[in-house]
Design brief:
Shape: globular
Largest sheet: 8 strands, antiparallel
Helix content: 10-25%
Mean pLDDT: 92
Strand content: 25-35%
Structural class: alpha+beta
Number of strands: 8
Length: about 200
DNA sequence: AGATGGATTTTC
DNA sequence: AAAATCCATCTC
């Protein structure tokens, strides 16, 4: 059921698209929290200026240089956490950011972690939101995704049509800012709203 | 609907 | 100082 080390030991672009429809599972205080992955972004390597590892090896980016199938959790804007899976062989830094889930199990608990009344589509529809909902923080940085606190399963769900757009929030990345390396399940209501999409029509 | 600012860590 | 974000709180 759990995705194998070999699944992650591939280029980030392949892993990013293959992760759509897979199920992210978090075991926390003996409960299961899970959701189907509906949105990802690929950070393909040291030459990708949007990839944190393009700045070199630092304490923060260390796990990205390690073996595949481990988690890379970092804090953005001092506040929210983002969860990534490390891809490619040891020594080659690349990762896939998990940006949105469709809640599956433990939605009551997720709603508690998110604070207050929230619609299902507001539970895990963004990288910071899903970390809050699944109790993922920096303590899970470097976690082996083949262990039993946090992992990804194949439940043989079909993801539906996949769309690709430019990644979000990386305008500084020069020619890499326009690469269509954000993938999502088209029409799924749990996909995150970007600023431009939020304007509707 | 759209813009703005606040929270605050990591890095340069 | 700027960032792989989210939310409350204004505006129109």
């Amino acid at each position: 059921m759990k995705l194998s080390r070999e699944f992650y030991n591939r280029p980030a672009l392949e892993v990013a698209t293959d992760l759509l429809g897979k199920v992210l599972v978090r075991r926390f205080e003996r409960r299961i929290l899970s959701g189907t992955i509906v949105e990802t972004e690929a950070y393909v390597g040291p030459h990708d200026l949007a990839c944190h590892a393009s700045k070199g090896r630092t304490p923060r980016t260390e796990v990205m240089f390690g073996p595949p199938g481990f988690s890379y959790v970092y804090q953005v804007y001092g506040f929210h956490f983002c969860f990534n899976v490390v891809t490619e062989p040891e020594g080659y830094p690349a990762a896939v950011l998990i940006r949105a889930l469709e809640p599956l199990e433990g939605t009551h608990r997720m709603r508690q972690f998110r604070g207050g009344e929230r619609r299902d589509t507001d539970l895990t529809s963004g990288p910071g939101k899903l970390c809050q909902a699944l109790a993922i923080d920096k303590r899970l940085n470097g976690e082996d995704l083949l262990e039993n606190r946090l992992w990804i399963e194949d439940r043989r769900f079909s993801s539906g049509p996949i769309a690709a757009t430019a990644r979000v929030g990386i305008n500084y990345a020069g020619k890499y800012a326009d690469k269509p390396w954000r993938f999502f399940v088209q029409g799924n209501p749990h996909v995150s709203r970007t600023r431009t999409l939020a304007t509707g029509h």
